[in-house]
Amino acid sequence: YIYKEATDASAAVAQEIASLIREKQSQNKKCVLGLATGSTPLGVYKELVKLHKEEGLSFENVVSFNLDEYFPMDPSSSHSYHHFMHKNLFDHVDVLPENIHIPAGNISLDQVHDFCLDYEEKIKSAGGIDLQLLGIGRTGHIGFNEPGARSNSHTRIIVLDTLTRRDASNSFNGIHNVPQRAITMGVGTIMSAKKVILMALGENKANIIKKAVEGNVTPLLPASFLQNHPNARFIIDSAAASDL
Ligand code: GLP
């Protein structure tokens, strides 16, 4: 799905999320959202905040699971995805704090295994993810599932690709400050979502979008696994579509 302007793509995704939240509300059900960080979903979050303030869209029935977090990472750090999500969405809507889930970057290494099993368990007991929002890294990663990730992988700790760390280096004031690892939902976790929307905006995503959409399905490009998902869409702007 190609939109001329990035703002139109973001508005369309926000509208779709809002309709799902409202639909679940009318059925007295929770709406389980898988959420992403990075610059790409910022417009969606801005629009959702606007819908909350101007149209009274409530997030009281929303249960959220974020894709990933750097490791190690203190949640109070301005570099954390905890900080990002609160600053750009959670602080401005009426989501219940107990319904927010983000992988913990501040646990010890020997707690990670149990934490990851528990994260998967929580997703399952919430009834699974209704809608998973994704960005895409220039390595083709979804969440932090870097090239080599298996299609059945679950929440775990991974080593970040150098290109990913280089892309993050500006906001960390240098690549040496970017953590080497992260905790991420797996490809299998993402593939279990009932609906997936991958967003890509801008010309620097054009090459990886072409490979993910038109290339082979391969662990060398984890986003390509979405070709096998029964309800996944890529919502991109014309710049990200320029190599298709
Ligand atoms: C990080 C996140 C991904 C995101 C990617 C792209 O690596 N873990 O979830 O998709 O960045 O970021 P951006 O949207 O800023 O291009």
UniProtKB/TrEMBL annotation:
Start and end residues of each Glucosamine/galactosamine-6-phosphate isomerase domain: 6-228
UniProt name for this protein: Glucosamine-6-phosphate deaminase
Source species of the chain: Prolixibacter bellariivorans
Whole-protein residues included: 40 to 283 of 661
